[in-house]
C-alpha cells in the first residue's frame, strides 16, 4: 500500500559550470593565429515544478538527493561547451519550500508553478573571450563555478475546499467515501485514519474537493496526538465542517463540548501562510456542523437537543447518516454553495510582478572587515570577489595578474589602503588567503611575456632562457675582447 508523506528534507546540488579553454589557433603558415579557446557551459539547475498528477512527497522520502548535470568544458577552435540539463523535480500542488532554518522560500500553488531550488554554476570564459588590448593572447582561462548546494524542507499542505474536522471515529472518512470516489480505510477504533484523505465531490455543475484531517484531539495545537502534523492541511480550506458523532457512548462527551474543544484548537493554531492566500485566519472561515450517525435512535434524540444551541451560533446544521446516506444530497449542495460564495467574496489574487532591485549608487559590491582570527589581517566579502577567486587558476601567474586587475578596478586595493593594511598583511577572499603587496602595479598595461606568465608576479628565482642567452653573449664578448688585447 502506498504511503502518504507530507514532509521531507531533500539535498539539492546544481551542476558545476564547465571550465574555459586556453588555446591558440594554429594552422599552416599561421603558427600563432590568436586565442581561440571556447567558453565552458553553464551547469544545470534543479527546479521544483507543480504537477497535478503528483499527490505525495513519497518519492523524495526514498530519494532525497538530487543533482543537476555539469556543464561541458570549452574547446579550441572557439567551440563552447554544452550547457548542463536542468533537473526537474515534480511536486504536489500546495507544496511549501523552507530552508534549513525554517524560513519560507516559496509556496507552490497552481499547476506549472516553478521554483529554482539550486542554481547551476556559470561556465568559465575561454581565452578568446578574455582577449583585450592589454592581453591580446591570454595564456589562461577562467574556471567554471560550482553549482549551488543546499538542504530544503518540503512541506505539503493539501489544497481542499472543505476540511472535515472532528474527534477520532466521528465518521469523517466514511463521509469522504460516500461523497466522493475516494476509498479511505474505515474501522471502528480511534486513529484509524493516519493520513489526510482527499476526495472530489460533484454537485450538479459544481465541483469541489473535500479533505479529512485526522488526529484532532484537545491539545493538538500543542503537539498532542497527530493533530499538529496535519493541522496545516486546513490552512487552504475555504470551509470548515465539524463532523460530530451523535452516537458516541463515551461518558462526558456531547456534540457541543466536542465542537468547543476543537474550536479552541483551531483558534490556538497559527497558520504560517494564511496571509499569502487571502483566506484569513482559521477562526474567520465559514463553519458548518454535520451531525452524523442519526440512523441510531439515541443519536437522533441527541441531535434534537443540541441543534437549537448550534443554530444560535449562526452555523448551519445538517443531519446525516453516512451508512444510510440520509441527508447527503442537501449537504452536498450546501457545501458547494458555501465554497462558491466564500471564494467569490475573497479579493482576487493579483499576479505577482517581477521585482527589480537596482544596485544603490554607493554600493561597491564588496566589504572589507578586519579578520578577527588573524592580527593585521582582513577579510573581503562580496559575491563578485568570491566568484572571481573561485574562477582563478592560481598556478598560472597570468591568471593571478588578471585577478589582481579585476580586484583593483573594483576598488579592493583602495579600500585596503584606507583601512591601514600593511604590506604582507594576510587578506582572505572566499577560500583563498594571500599576502597583500601594495607595490604591485595593477590596472596598467601588461608587458608582453610568455603565455601564462606575468612579470609583476615573478615568483620563480630560476634564470630563464632569455637571461641565460644574454649572459652567454656577455661572456663571449668579454672573451673576444681579451683576445684582442693580448
TrEMBL record:
Gene3D superfamilies: GTP-binding protein OBG, C-terminal domain (3.30.300.350), GTP1/OBG domain (2.70.210.12), P-loop containing nucleotide triphosphate hydrolases (3.40.50.300). Mg(2+) binds at residues 173, 193. Residues 63-83, 458-486 are annotated as: Disordered. GTP binds at residues 166-173, 191-195, 212-215, 292-295, 321-323. Keywords: Cytoplasm, GTP-binding, Hydrolase, Magnesium, Metal-binding, Nucleotide-binding. Residues 2-159 form the Obg domain. PROSITE patterns: G_OBG, GTP1_OBG, OBG, OCT. Residues 160-340 form the OBG-type G domain. InterPro entries: G_OBG, GTP-bd, GTP-bd_Obg/CgtA, GTP-bd_prot_GTP1/OBG_C_sf, GTP1-OBG_CS, GTP1_OBG_dom, GTP1_OBG_dom_sf, OBG_GTPase. It is an enzyme of class 3 (hydrolase). Residues 458-469, 477-486 have a biased composition (Basic and acidic residues). CDD domains: Obg. Its main location: cytoplasm. It holds the Pfam family GTP1_OBG. Its EC number is 3.6.5.-. Monomer. HAMAP family: GTPase_Obg (MF_01454). Belongs to the TRAFAC class OBG-HflX-like GTPase superfamily. OBG GTPase family. An essential GTPase which binds GTP, GDP and possibly (p)ppGpp with moderate affinity, with high nucleotide exchange rates and a fairly low GTP hydrolysis rate. Plays a role in control of the cell cycle, stress response, ribosome biogenesis and in those bacteria that undergo differentiation, in morphogenesis control. This is GTPase Obg. The lineage of its organism: Bacteria, Bacillati, Actinomycetota, Actinomycetes, Mycobacteriales.
